[in-house]
What does this fold into?
Amino acid sequence: MKERLLQEFEMIYGDSKRCHIYFAPGRVNLIGEHIDYSGGYVMPCALTMGTYGVARKREDRKLCFSSLNMDKVIVEKSLDEIKPDPDNDWTNYLLGVIAAFAKEGYEIEQGLDLMLYGTIPSGAGLSSSASVEVLMGFVLKELFGLDVSGRRLALAGQWAEHEYCGVNCGIMDQFAVAMGKKDHAVYLNTGNLSYEYVPVELKGVKLVLANSNKKHALNESAYNDRRRECEEALRNLQEVMGIEALCQLDPDTFDTCQKAIRDEDCRRRARHAVMENARTKKAVEVLKQGDIEAFGRLLNESHQSLSQDYEVTGDEMDALAEAAWEQPGVYGSRMTGGGFGGCTVSLVREEDVPSFIENTGKKYTEKTSLKADFYVVEIGGGPVVLL
Ligand code: GLA
It folds into this structure.
């Protein structure tokens, strides 16, 4: 891979002198969906799929970006004029992080050449964007010797997403990418960013992702609407009680105070947040006990709640999850990520994986006329220097 990346870099930039190679992962969220902007617990893992970056410093203040996933041409920018570029959307993840670093007072005095290559299918809900953002921050940190923690890399990525890419996302994706640990989930309290690594020991069970190939585009979708609906629910609740985030409520308290939420849709969104948070707390317990069956049941309940109360699944994700639930050897299956398309994550007994892929794929196509792609994935670590 390294040789190939350097050759590609030479084709675009002429030579690959003084280059370094970096990698940042993608992520899959096991459970705790759509609650990272409501102060909830989430449980994502970094993947071994991700984004490679070949980079070197320049003597001038130019930023020369290219991507093997795009046209392989150089898009040129300057450190003296950092602003969003509507014509080259993909560069906004990079520019946004550079702007975030500048805002934080990090001195970046020289420009850079940077070539990207991503192995995460885009639009699959596996955080190719957070992967690129964290990679950019990591490249800056390493090339310029900056003292930046993983937590700050995550926050810079989130800022870029909000300010340069128009998505009012939570912190989960960038945190999982920046702080991932091999064979562990990151059990993160998004209310205060405290976290714990939880071993994911599946013993004969595989994590299988099914890509619906229904493209999701978070900023065009109802993602920002959901966030607004949760904020409205919270404002209504704050009229009767002193809470700062929906996930501070346990299910019983929510039952007694939910009438304060005037709009029916907002009430259901809030119910999802409260119940999903409770499920995630339960999920970490059963995972630590090695009870994969109970863990799988929580995954299924999460999907149902995302489908009925939160309404972010859509026909395609429902079809994929329902097809998975019918297959032998499946402990649980749910949509993962922002929703409205993207991937499901399923826990499948190893010997049943081939038939799972065949039969789930067939049923999905019968229902939707789309073809799903399947990936049997491994849990990887955070960003690394490869060369
Ligand atoms: C997207 C966002 C995350 C999170 C998930 C849903 O991936 O970027 O912050 O809200 O959706 O859990």
The first strand starts at residue 20 and ends at 29.
